[in-house]
Predict the 3D structure of the following.
Amino acid sequence: MNFLQRFTTGTSGNTARSSLLKEKSIKTVFFCTAFFAIVVIIFILFFLFLDGYPVFEQVGIANFLFGTSWTPTAVVPAYGIFPLIVGTLLVTLGAMVIAVPLSLGCAIYVSELASPRVKKILKPAIELLAGIPSVVYGFFGLIVLTNFIRISCDIPTGETWLAASILLGVMALPTIISVSEDAISSVPREFKEGSLAIGATRWQTISKVIVPAALSGIAAAIILGIGRAVGETMAVMMVAGNAAIIPNPIWNVLSPIRTLTGTLGIEMGEVSVGSLHYNALFGVAIVLLVITLIINLSAVAILRHLRERGTTRQKRTPLLTPERKESLKRFAEVSGISVLMIFILVATPWWGVIVFLLAGVVWYYIREQISQKLIEKLAFALIISAAVIVIAILVIILQDIVINGLPAISWEFLTQPPRDLGRAGGIFPAIVGTLYLVIGAIMIALPIGVGAAIYLVEYTREGRITRLIRTGVDLLNGTPSIVFGLFGFAFIVLFLGTGVSLIAGQITLALMVLPTIIRTTEESLKNVPQALREGSLALGATKWQTIRMVVLPPAVPGIVTGAILSIGRAAGETAPIMFTAVIFSSRFLPDSVFQPVMALPYHLFILATNIPGSSTNKYGTALVLLILVIGFYSVAIVVRNHFQNKIRV
Amino acid sequence: MSDTPIISAHNLNLWYNDTHALQSISIAIREKRVTALIGPSGCGKSTLLRCFNRLNDLIDHVKITGEITFGDVNIHAPGTDVVHLRKRIGMVFQKPNPFPKSIYDNIAYGPRVHGVKEKKDLDRIVEKSLRDAALWEEVRDRLADSALGLSGGQQQRLCIARTLAVGPEVILMDEPCSALDPIATAKIENLIEILKKNYTVIIVTHNMQQAARVSDYTGFMYLGKLVEFGETRQIFEHPSETLTENYITGRFG
Amino acid sequence: MKTQKRSFIFLTLSLAALLIVSMLVAGCLDSGTKTTVTPVPTTASVGAVATTQATAPAVPVTTAAPAAPVQKQTIRISGSTTVLPIVQKAADQYMAVHPEADIQISGGGSGVGIQAIGAKTVDIGMTSREVTKDEMAKYPRFVVTTIAQDGIAVVVNPKNTIQYITLDQIKNIYLGKITKWTEINGAEVPGTNNQIVIVGRDSASGTRSYFDETVLAKATPTNTMLEKNSNGAVLQTIAQTPGAIGYVSIGFVSNDVKALPIWYNAQKIIAPGINTVKDKTYPVSRDLYVITNGQPAGLAGDFIKYILSPDGQKIVADEGYVTIST
């Protein structure tokens, strides 16, 4: 026995048994967190269903889903949510029409055309756009966008489907751009080099080789964007007009409209527990969940199909035969052009359509004659303008808030409570309230989320149960935040009786970010190569030692980034705290978690919609909230880049 | 020349789902000798290797019957301390897998995990392991640098050093040179010559010449069966089985 | 090894910095709050402002024993956005004199107020409509106190040339039967196509309940009506939309909008104002209420008493509402 073995023969007999006990107890701890997370997810679904079922029973599913009149407080109440469903779909469709071309153009620009210096500035700038809270978008929309639409379209009011779609489209841009850009960047260089070597232009390479190769990632990005648009509450509530009607005619983008999420946000506070109206709102939440589930499942199906297409082996006849693909392409072209035409019809005077048609005819005839180089120049011009538009949007919104908000910022503003209904005084209690909410939420969600993810990745095998769990986590990940607000209000505030309180808000926010933390932690853990685990185990390390010393360290940056992003999101959200944690004005800071708090997003929302004459303070609040949330996002981005650079050794 | 078997397999069978990957393998590995397992791709040699340190436990849907003994102990007996087993039987993988840590921390990982805490002791272990793996002179001045900055051959020798640091009795090597250039390969083959003075080495290789150069005993496997096993010189110069002869003379493979 | 350690230090430092900043900010809190509310001089009200006693439908408020509190007392209030400005101002003044009192206030609408006081998540609920029979049956412990009177003014954008309006015209507009301003005598919005933009409140609003019941005779307004969540939001919309019409409590009427006199009973043209509400000639008048569970007691009772006192009623008048008179 060499001297090395002298040190290392200790693990036998008693020590073996005690370390086995330690391993087992650690595994149990992680199991408990995973179990708790899953129980919570199931419980939320169950509770929503329980409270929503009576409306299906009493009103009938068909009447509920397809009834065209939503008047819950009329003398004879009606609970038909068809206009709301249509509203959600139309607003999302409009948002995608705006967001998808712009995002694709911008993503292509960033990954293929931009110089490294420009890229370094542009990528974080776009990710910062993701940090702007929805209530700030809504605020901007209410003050600037609706007026702009009213004046330029010469219509009575700017609170329309168009306003909502523009806002939602802008809000979805960062998501779609980031994920698409990642997908395009990860297309192997060999594809690009192969195409250029044949003599294709850069644009041909991009449009015919790179983008198709990245299609699954782009599809995932668009689906994420759709999820974002469907789930948005605050911005829509503030600019859509909230009339529960189906636009007449259906393509009238200038009609007011109301979405499912908007209905929850507007009516949640006034329902008394157990009334049919109360059940109807839960019914709406269930419908939202079903829509989210459909989006998730179609995402999985589309992605699987696209991936299968990329491999040479295909198990069954592909869904898209060449003929079907051709007709699909033609259909896409035709519908795209008709949408564009309708757009022009609405937005410009009558001669706009004629000009457009003429341009189309001209294009059709000279298409064959134009050199590829010219086409490339045109395409690149469009792409660059897409990127410019995205940046311009960011600049317009930021400068409006910064310029109007800076005058309001003073030491008094930051350290005093509000006076005169918020028109004077400061926002100190709101700043503190937001910090309390966020810190509490993270302290609850982080241990449970990380523990559950560790258990799912390291201690279980891929099987039906883990896949079910993952579907559940994904479902909650895509769930609109207002649904969490509804659950928090009904279960924590009312049923558990905590009343509107800090703890109710913290728990609701924690539930909202829990799926995100689980997902990002899982991704980070999975990115650690299996070879490292095997290497460690082959040296005789225990599972927990392997996790602690080999798996977790490289995964920590990803976990931390996810945590910080969750913090940023929790700080900016209004819907989950609206009915669970906040009051409009309070003189003291809460001295227990069972008291309500003020919070920045809610304060901004009330100032913007309820308090006329508070213009300076509105902008000041928006600016402070913006700085806070973007501050968190910036830290996350810096941390992630720092560690990514390091690992790339 | 000690010929005591240190690891033996009796009638070992292994299934991946329904695939019968190892069929009735019986083999005796001699202590402090180098045993090579050769055979065409897919014959089960890596699978057999991974049975010895129970690394196949990490794979789903694996079923094992038969017996493997290490010393006198059946390693599949319920209550076997697998962690301790893996300390005594170490493994070097086909693709070098250093941890994303410093060179020092890679070597020190094993001892630390098994309870060695004193820096003096760790320093000594690290130096000895690196010397034994013929890597010390090349890295002695940059122990704090990341292990990922080493060349492929150096990384593999680092992984060998890492294995040596926990003081095993047996070293399993799964095609350790297949990802390396000829110079690095030669260095590792020399290393194996030296290692066998103190350790039992079982090496899986698809390179017959390497097996002939390096090993004392050779086992030829084909489609999950151990076709022939014996002293290397005998296998290569006078194989008993026709199949063995066909493989060695290159008629298939 | 060193680089990894450095990264971890960097990481923990940045996180710690974030947390420390938050804690510091939180810590500075308490020192700031006590001295911030500027005390408003509580001069005795002079002039033709009404007296203190509550009138008919309300139950006389029992005098709560004004305790000499050493520790903080908290009450929560939520509900009608019409009543909110009164209660908020009153709370500011009350808290200036009673430093240990913490009055926490939110809006949301009369519906929210009733829901909250019924579920006991607040101590006082504010409403601008009467509690319905169903609600009284469901919450028999409700005690309703009138604190002020109010009129609902029909407002349009100042660009609108209209001079006055009849109740029938209001009704027909809100039911969607009249769609253009030019259908009304003397009404026009130069620079637009004269389309009427109908603005109302959402379903939680007591103002809307009262309006729908009184002016629309319980009919449902047309579904193209824009639903706003507060008086302030309606006001903002009317002020920035030339063709709009809406209704707000008279306490909210400002120079940004034009409050329309109502042609009533085919004779008089009655402008909405404090006097016309008080002598009940303005046709769309109502009471404003606060609701408690059981007789108001403790800090809640004391506060309600304050609102009903001359000082409190002065606030009512200052905000543009009508005080309650004997």
The mean pLDDT of chain B is 90. The CA atoms of residues 5 and 30 of chain B lie 4 Å apart. The radius of gyration of chain B is 18 Å.
